[in-house]
Write a structure and sequence with these properties.
The protein has 301 residues and is mainly alpha-helical. It has helices spanning 7-22, 25-42, 49-76, 78-83, 99-120, 123-144, 151-159, 162-171, 176-199, 201-207, 212-216, 218-236, 238-241, 247-269, 273-300. The N and C termini lie far apart (58 Å).
Length: 301
């Protein structure tokens, strides 16, 4: 006979899942993946065992601080989250976790991640990661998001930092190659997020947030998505032009950039919520495949 699980055990597991949900796992996974790409590209050839250890510790530290920023974001935006279908399930929005619980959880993760980066990686990476935390959790969430429709453009700088953090973790400095990777994510963020905002516009309007489709309308936002994909296309060629990558990356970059631009063009010409969803989902594929190609190309050259 199987041993029955106690109510207390079930409750504990449920609470742990709620805390884990606060970290926005899927978003943090993409952040750590982009940071890992920066780490790999910063090390010529095959990494040593010391490089692998440093990279693993840096990934953990960045994950902890990124999770802390996400938890703080959930705390600050719990009222807004409760009004939106996409976010109403979050534990803070549903009142499953108190403000104090979320705040302490965020503080503990941030402190643990910062300490790990300081003592086991290097101080520069710690300070840049902490600055990214402040940029996202405070400057973007508290100030920019409710203030201006350009929130995602300005605040996108925080989201573009992971490969820079990865680069500094391995080298102790911010190299120009890291800034190229930063530029790609910085330019990718607006069309990625505005595609989502287009089909979630009523949620944002209800929440009172000045997102671009709310303040400037559907047609203007679609044009901005298209224009940004053109600029992004050019930025995606820079790793090859700068000599960071070879022909494999170039072929993949051109292919996925044509795909993203094609979705944006179709969205501009003939809007539908279904097409906006497809554009948003393809944007995730675009960035993931692009950085995976950088990773593979690095070891094949």
């Amino acid at each position: 006979m199987s041993t029955p699980i106690s109510v207390q055990q079930t409750s504990t597991v449920g609470v742990l899942r709620q805390f884990y949900a606060l970290t926005k796992p899927r978003v943090v996974q993409l952040i750590v993946f982009c940071a890992l790409i920066g780490m790999v590209l910063a090390v010529p050839g095959l990494p040593t065992w010391a490089d692998v250890q440093r990279a693993a510790l840096a990934c953990i530290g960045i994950w902890l601080v990124a999770g802390a920023a996400a938890a703080f974001n959930c705390l600050v935006e719990k009222g807004i989250d409760a009004k939106m279908k996409r976010t109403a399930w979050r534990p803070t929005a549903r009142g499953q976790l108190s403000d104090l619980q979320a705040l302490v959880f965020s503080a503990v993760l941030c402190a643990a991640g910062s300490a790990l980066l300081w003592f086991k990686v290097n101080p520069l990476t710690m300070w840049l990661t902490f600055a990214t935390f402040v940029g996202y959790a405070v400057i973007y969430t508290v100030i920019l998001k409710p203030l201006t429709p350009q929130n995602i453009v300005i605040g996108g700088a925080s989201g573009a930092m992971p490969p820079v953090l990865g680069w500094t973790a391995m080298t102790g400095e911010v190299g120009p190659q890291a800034l190229v990777l930063f530029l790609i994510i910085f330019l990718w963020t607006p069309p990625h997020f505005w595609a989502l905002a287009l089909y979630r516009v009523e949620d944002y309007r209800k929440a009172g947030l000045p997102m671009l489709p709310v303040t400037h309308g559907n047609e203007f936002t679609r044009l901005q998505v298209l224009l940004y994909t053109f600029i992004l296309f050019a930025a995606c060629l820079m790793p090859f032009i700068y000599g960071m990558s070879g022909w494999l990356y170039l072929v993949v970059a051109v292919a996925v950039s044509i795909g993203f631009t094609g979705y944006a063009f179709a969205l501009w010409r003939n809007y539908s919520d279904t097409l906006a969803r497809k554009t948003f989902r393809f944007s995730l594929i675009h960035l993931s495949v692009l950085f995976a190609a950088l990773l593979v190309d690095h070891y094949l050259r």
